[in-house]
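note to self: dont lose this again. the chain is below, predicted strucutre after it. 219 aa total, dont forget to put it in the shared folder this time
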Amino acid sequence: MSKPPVLRSTRHARQTLRQLSELYPEAECALHHTSPWELLVATILSAQCTDVRVNLVTPALFARCPTPEVMSRIPLEELEQLIKTTGFFRNKAKNLQLCASALVEHHGGEVPGSMEELVELAGVGRKTANVILGNAFQLPGMVVDTHVKRLAYRLGWSAEREPEKVEVDLCRLLAKRDWTQASHLLIAHGRAICRAQRPWCSSCSLQSRCPRNGVKNSK
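---
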């Protein structure tokens, strides 16, 4: 395991986010949706699957299951076939039906807007809940996926490896108003440049701010 990075300051994070916002001015949630329900379903499907693949699957799925009520009643085998190409489709189908049933029984068929209620739903952890809060309800949500976790470590924003601990560090470091967009920006940069196996450091506009390149200013 590589040694933990030298942790950077709020000022470093704020300036880095400003630079990222200039690089990715249109960074936003990549999952296509028109409602909190659609975003919830798409996010559950995105586990260990690309957003591109999810976006190919969801039009037919949403046409067949436009509401939690419909999804809770659809034959499980049919639901599995609709989402089969997203991987782990049996477990995802089971969670989607359990989630849909809970929404109908306990939330009047509506997606709740609090972390506490969201994480009670099948297939929903803190990452998914933060996606919903930030993008469906415009509430601050610090999403820590594989890209965010990787960049937080490389930039020196967190020395943690567990997503929930990384989330705590980032929420302490960044202004609450920036949580949702910070996730989008870090994900965009992680996909485009700061990749897991072969980061394109020579093409990275953050070289002067990145500890991987020997930056010494932690302010």
